[in-house]
Amino acid sequence: MMLRFVFVCCWGLLTSLSAASFKVDYLSVGPTTYSNVTILGANVTDLYFRHSRGIANVKLKYLSPALQKQFNYDPKAAAEAEKQQNESDLRYQTDEATIFFNHGLQSEKPPASSENNLADPISDRSLLGRPVPTVDPDGWLGEKPVLEGKFLLIDFWAPWSIPCRKCVPDLNALQKKFKDKLTVVGWTSEGNSTNVNEMKMEFASAVDSKSKLSASADVTSVPCVLLVDSKGIVRYQGHPGAITEKKMEALMANDKGEAAK
Predict the structure, then answer these.
(1) Is this model's pTM higher than 0.85 or not?
(2) 92 within some domain
(3) What's the pLDDT tens digit per position in 222-231?
(4) Count of domains observed in the chain
(5) Domain span at residue 45?
(6) What is the pLDDT of residue 258?
(7) Which residues contact 226 (CB under 8 A, 6 or more apart)?
(8) Residues 6+ positions from 219 with CB-CB distance below 8 Å
(9) Beta partners for 158?
């Protein structure tokens, strides 16, 4: 959540996006080289761009003098902006820590947990117990599955991610065992049918090129899953390793379409 908050704030300050957008084959920043780069824009401190593996931003102070000049880099202004951002981050972290440690001390609204919960929210920004964000991909890598009236396990993955590849057999097993009550759906911003075949996915997968759902769910790493009950309520968000057959059976047995607390 923290990274997303900073990114959104910075994104809102980008200058002349349409005018600044252009493509380069490679962009080197220190020891890292990005390929197939589309420059999206810049603010006083950072350059934002899309590359072969996603979206990234780097500090203008680490770029070549030519690029710094092109994006009007001002060292003094950048230093002041970074100072203000660091102070804002510190306040945010302090607020989050207060929420966490005081969570169990709120007499008016005590935390509600249960043996059936796979996770409990510690922030009002959590999706747990809330309706799933709109599941509206750009297209499907194969036939669109039946989503209504079943549990839905959305697996956020990337074709270059080895941990994502390692999770596929377990997800295949869940889809096979609970095929009448569960639909497993892969969700990627950059995959294709060839990637699906290479990873030996035995479940449907969708392409969301603008990462609308992952942004709504605040997904910052892969693999990550959203488990949604038959009424469209999010019951779990996190690493797929927590979703075992035993836990799925328990959740399905207790599924009454009620929001998880």
Answers:
(1) no
(2) no
(3) 999 999 999 9
(4) 2
(5) 2-75
(6) 42
(7) 127, 132, 152, 153, 154, 156, 217, 234, 236, 237
(8) 156
(9) none
